Amino acid sequence: MGVPNDLQNNFREVVPALKPKEAIDEANRCLYCYDAPCIKACPTSIDIPSFIKKIATGNLYGSARTIMDSNPVGASCARVCPTEELCEGACVLNHASKPIMIGLLQRHATDWAIQNNAALFKKGEDNGKKVAIIGAGPAGLSAARELARLGYQVTVYEAKEKAGGLNTYGIVSFRLPQEISLWEVEQIEALGVKIQTNTRIGVDIQAEELLADYDSVLLAAGMGNVPNLQIEGEELEGVLDAISLVEETKTKPLANDMVGKKVVVIGAGNTAIDAATCSKRLGAEIVQILYRRTANEMSCYQFEYEFAKQDGVEFRWLVAPSRILGENGRVKGLELTKMELGEPDAKGRKRPVPISGSEFVIEVDFVVKAIGQERHVSLIEAFGIQHQKGVVSVQDATYRTSNPKVFAAGDIIFGGGKTDAMVVDAANHGKRAAHAIHNALSDQKQPV
Amino acid sequence: MADLSINLAGIQSPNPFWLASAPPTNSGYQVQRAFEAGWGGAVWKTLGEPIINVTSRFAGLTFGGQRVFGFNNIELITDKPLEVNLKEMDETKKRFPKHTLIASLMVEHKQEAWHEIVKKVEAIGVDGLELNFGCPHGMAERGMGSAVGQHPDLIRQQVEWVKEVAQTPVIVKLTPNITDIRFTARAASQGGADAISMINTINSLMGVDLDKWLPIPHVDGKGAHGGYCGPAVKPIALNMVAECARDAQVGVPISGIGGISNWRDAVEFLLMGATGVQVCTAAMHHGFRIVEDMIDGLNNYLDQRGIASVMDIVGKAVPTYSDWGHLNLNYKVVARIHEETCINCNKCHIACEDTSHQCIDIIADEATGKERLVVREDDCVGCNLCSIVCPVEGTIEMVEIPSDLPPLSWNQRQAALAANGTNET
């Protein structure tokens, strides 16, 4: 197997869109609850019964607008939200029949908007104020959209070549095709938002310049690459970073060097699952996820776990890599140490403890690291704002950092196990931070 | 954003969506909540001598899993003293001066009674009056409501009395419980009505309890006919609106009522001659918030067609509504089945085979072992039945077959025959 053409097929969106009749049937099944629990379960508070009712009445423009009004990255979220844990999990029909397929209906409405080139929003009347946003991911874009509608001149600085952040680069194509994320970017650019890509703050532009040139700055940078495992052999060819692996499949022609190979992925979060299923779809013969705890402690979503198993990914619990073995500069094998579970840690997860003398070696061709992401500490420090290990401290309601002119949202304030770093949460942060900035800048105007 | 405001016989409203006179407009609290939700107007629940109501009062029809497909009630007009209603109406109008507030009225067949109530409600600044000649239950037995609405002379007389003192536009609400609504509509118009509204509810018995052998609903072991409404009555209402809209002798604007549940229904009523619509059952089913999609959907419909004002679509389909005798006998459509979306339920085949013209064959494809459905177009009469029973929208298309013959209606045909007959003699 393994001509690139086949691989291309493997990266087509796996979940099919609803057929038109399916969408209408499903929309008519919604009870249109009052004070609906699905709205409360959505971090961006989309008026779900309303957008579904609008599908039922053929008002697809209105439906898409209702969704995107609450969530500027609503088309991406329709595909990547853990709906079982959010809206669909809260659906009252869970108790009576089956929950409404809210995610797929959201996709149905936003797909309509994409296919019909619908311009959903207009920019607000220019209020003469300028805001700089660092990072064009879900949080930054969401804030940019809201601020543009409120009449701000918004410039978004993005280190990468394209905007969209995680949605554009970090989520496997078979779950979220890049064009969906890029449509959301276009929607925001259409409101007059300037997105300056290939621009790094602290390298191409200094933090001081932004602070001097703008009325307010929003820090919405995401996270960086996967940190090192800190074991021997990490420099070998064939040791990959899960984030980069996914990114390559979205930006470059699919490579066939994994075809028929043995791949291990270290870690068991959602990124690890993505890396594993990606490897499988790149043609790897055997893909194993290695995790030092057990299935009970994994941080990936249940549906991701099921999806990976369907793809043929194997899971090995209670093992930790202790050494990567090479031959001629290439990965050849991996030494693993067996673990057992000890006392719970601060998050309540049982701590893995190595069993001494239990080391054994397996044969592998690729080792993919997926043990978390690095934080942009230098960027944070360039602004001289308070943080804890790269997590920017903000006042809860205002998203304001220790510098009153600087606000922060998204990954850069997630941390400490408070919440999952979901796209929809980042979008919500961005939206709220935008309104907090608006409040702060409007207050200045008012006479004392 | 299109201009959604309407002008119905001089009554201005920010949008065409009004709540009909009914339980949702029983109090200031409710009407004010409705205006906050976006409704353009409300016809206050009918004023008159306060009555005593019974329990229970409502019944719903569930059809094919859809609840409240039909609905009926045996509730009567207001149960509050006139002074209380007037005070709440006054407060409501003061809080929402730009919204439309209409007083629905029903009194006994006396000139003074009409004069008195009209003066009282106009004193508090309502935008118009709606005379309730429609309620089919309870009040009709006392000689009011549809008891009046079934007699053109009584309608004309009472409208005249009202017009003697009324300063605001007068809408006459008609009952559908009548052979031909145009006669009562014309009577209202002759009496001086500025507009008519239709339909009020239809006589109905919602159901019978299989275990208790009692009507649904029943009041302590007995039931009575109630007023039927909801999505199920829409075609009846739409026909009555269309008939009045194309009748030159009626000649007054129409407020459309009857089964309007969403913006699409509203657009149909507007196209068929209504200047605005009144809604009740859909609001009772889902709350006042349904108006949000009604407004949004209507606005998007107009915007997408580049139509600046909702008033521009009023009556646009009326000229296409005619009598059978004017339909073209030489026009022909036939059914075409799109195989790619056909799911082979074969419902079209059996509908045609058992109850229409036996022109859909099931052909077994020996190569694949599958069946397909084929229309013998020469035998198809274009009745639509197959496309109506087909569960997959768009799978059976009715396709026009061009005719060599010029258009010919029954009336033209008979006229031509008569002319030939004359020549022959």
UniProtKB/TrEMBL annotation, chain A:
Residues 20-54 form the 4Fe-4S ferredoxin-type domain. It comes from the Bacteria. Coiled coil: none annotated. InterPro entries: 4Fe4S_Fe-S-bd, DPD_II, FAD/NAD-bd_sf, FAD/NAD-binding_dom, Helical_ferredxn. PANTHER family: GLUTAMATE SYNTHASE [NADPH] SMALL CHAIN, GLUTAMATE SYNTHASE [NADPH] SMALL CHAIN-RELATED. This is NAD(P)-dependent oxidoreductase. It comes from Brevibacillus choshinensis. The lineage of its organism: Bacteria, Bacillati, Bacillota, Bacilli, Bacillales.
UniProtKB/TrEMBL annotation, chain B:
Signal peptide: none annotated. Residues 333-365, 371-401 form the 4Fe-4S ferredoxin-type domain. It comes from Brevibacillus choshinensis. The keyword Metal-binding applies. It holds the Pfam family DHO_dh. GO terms for molecular function: dihydropyrimidine dehydrogenase (NAD+) activity. It catalyses: 5,6-dihydrouracil + NAD(+) = uracil + NADH + H(+); 5,6-dihydrothymine + NAD(+) = thymine + NADH + H(+). Belongs to the dihydropyrimidine dehydrogenase family. InterPro entries: 4Fe4S_Fe-S-bd, 4Fe4S_Fe_S_CS, Aldolase_TIM, Dihydroorotate_DH_cat. This is dihydrouracil dehydrogenase (NAD(+)). Coiled coil: none annotated. Keywords: Iron, Iron-sulfur, Metal-binding, Oxidoreductase.
